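Why this split exists: single-chain examples teach little about how molecules sit against one another. For that reason, every record in the complexes split bundles all components of an assembly together and asks for one structure covering all of them. Below is a record exactly as it appears in the raw files.
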Amino acid sequence: DAGVTQSPTHLIKTRGQQVTLRCSPKSGHDTVSWYQQALGQGPQFIFQYYEEEERQRGNFPDRFSGHQFPNYSSELNVNALLLGDSALYLCASSLWGASGYTFGSGTRLTVV
Amino acid sequence: QKEVEQDPGPLSVPEGAIVSLNCTYSNSAFQYFMWYRQYSRKGPELLMYTYSSGNKEDGRFTAQVDKSSKYISLFIRDSQPSDSATYLCAMSDETSYDKVIFGPGTSLSVIP
């Protein structure tokens, strides 16, 4: 039973560029949440998708957007990258209405 | 003041010791309390999940919640080198229980 799969594992982008990160949820899960984890910090909630709609959003600018597909997989897009966007981006899947996340291993984004 | 505070450590203990990890929080609306373990280069893994106040035990792990003091703890008995990781406390409220707020994490090393 595959857990949460994220791609790519590492990425280097230049300031001002755009990036797309991908996530496949754990089998049986229908909800995907995205978190940003800066070095030495806890994860910060970006947003959550269920039934292909954004259901909740954290305190992140509109440069951060997402999408969920009919097969429950999800993408996180970040436009106009800033140096401060360098972080580990974590995807977490769950079953809508149930408690507890399953996290992927993350995508390490470095903006230079 | 941050919503969730946690001593970042690092905490170093000998194998077999009892470990106590703690978090304080400021939002009295929090009702769901979690502890996650994160190994280096991995995503967080859910260890314990508690609703409201009280204790919960699972094997060598015990979670305690004191809502009156806005204080939660995780105890690890008979600590093992494999317990060496960063421990993240996390919490959420009734209205948006999936929007989880994480502490910054405590780095734990268990020395053989």
